[in-house]
Every structure is written in C-alpha cells, then in structure tokens.
Predict the structure.
Amino acid sequence: MKHHTPPSDSDVPLTVGRWLHDELESRGYNLSQRGGGRRRFADLSGVPVATLSRVLRDDGGADPATLRKIAEALGVALTPLLVLANVIPEAEVQPRAITTDEALAALGVTKPAHKAAVLSMVRALLDDENEGGSDTKQ
C-alpha cells in the first residue's frame, strides 16, 4: 500500500485537506457521504467527525493538536503537516539525518536477514562508486 508524502509537482496548490483526503482514500477509507470512512478514521484518530470534515474541506480545524492526532493515526511525520497547514514556516524546518533502521523501516524492510542483504548491497554500490565504477561503457 502506497502512502503519500506531500507532493510538489501539482498545478493545484496542495492543502492539508487535499493531502488528507488522498491519503485516507489510498488507505481504503471511503470518504463519500455514506461510505463510513470519516467515522472510522475519526474513531481511530480521536478527532471528532465534525473537525475531521472541516480539515478535509480546508475550512479550519487543522490546529497543531488535531494535526498531531492525524499524523499519529496515519503513522506519518507531523512536521510536514504543520508546514502544509502554515503552522510553521518551511524555512524553519531543519532537515534531520535518519538512522539506518529508520531508512530500512521506511522501505518496509523489517526482517533481520533482509536488512543485512540490503545493507550489503548498499555497501557494495557505495564501494563501487568510491572506486570510480560505472554501469556504462565509455
């Protein structure tokens, strides 16, 4: 299942509501009037349905406490949502290096044997790069 991070390649400005709508639908929540997805996610996240509806419509409700509940329920980072909602300016966000375990988890690699295999392959590729190796003939 693919989970979205706020994209930057759209002609339509991305909003918290649009991002959340797309994210919930990609996770199987039916957000139509009678679909039950709003209620299900509201129950999961602890965000009242009325507040969730306002966030989805970009009609208020996207305060930091609500965004934290949404981020926690979806298992996504809070900071990009705070930036998207204009709660904090993007210029104030300092990039953070992630650990090897965080990178592997983000890729969905969780089994120890698989982690070792991926790390071995990455090390081999980096060694090849550092030695000036190339995939193309010149």
